[in-house]
Amino acid sequence: MTVNIRKLLNGTVSLRDYIVKKCTEKGTSLKVIHEGQCMIPSPAELVTKKFQLANRLFKSKFGGPNYQLFDYEWRPSKKIRTEEVIRDGSNSTE
Fold first, then answer.
1. Does residue 41 belong to any structural domain of this protein?
2. pTM above 0.85?
3. pLDDT tens-digit series, residues 19-44
4. Total domains in the fold of the chain
5. In the chain, what are the helix, strand and coil shares in percent, each to the nearest 5?
6. Which pairing describes strands 37-39 and 12-16: parallel, antiparallel, or unpaired?
7. What is the C-alpha to C-alpha distance for residues 28 and 55, in angstroms, rounded to an integer?
8. d(CA 29, CA 22)
9. Alpha-carbon gap, residue 19 to 93, rounded angstroms
10. What is the residue range of 68's domain?
């Protein structure tokens, strides 16, 4: 699964709880993309390295499910080309 993040907060990336849960249940890594850089935490890291800057429930603006945010230290592993982001059919934006 791939998620494009528009902004970071104090060097952390916030991911929605249902995205993290989906990856951990399937045992798949999550590709997090921000400004041409990529971070790929493993399912184990998604569980053990999370923390919450805001411990509350957020309401979806577009009728989706309500969610909590799990925060992770932004540690990109590589730079990616724009073509890679466009080619990946599993892109979603947060």
1. yes
2. no
3. 999 999 999 989 999 998 999 998 98
4. 1
5. 25, 30, 45
6. unpaired
7. 25
8. 10
9. 11
10. 2-79
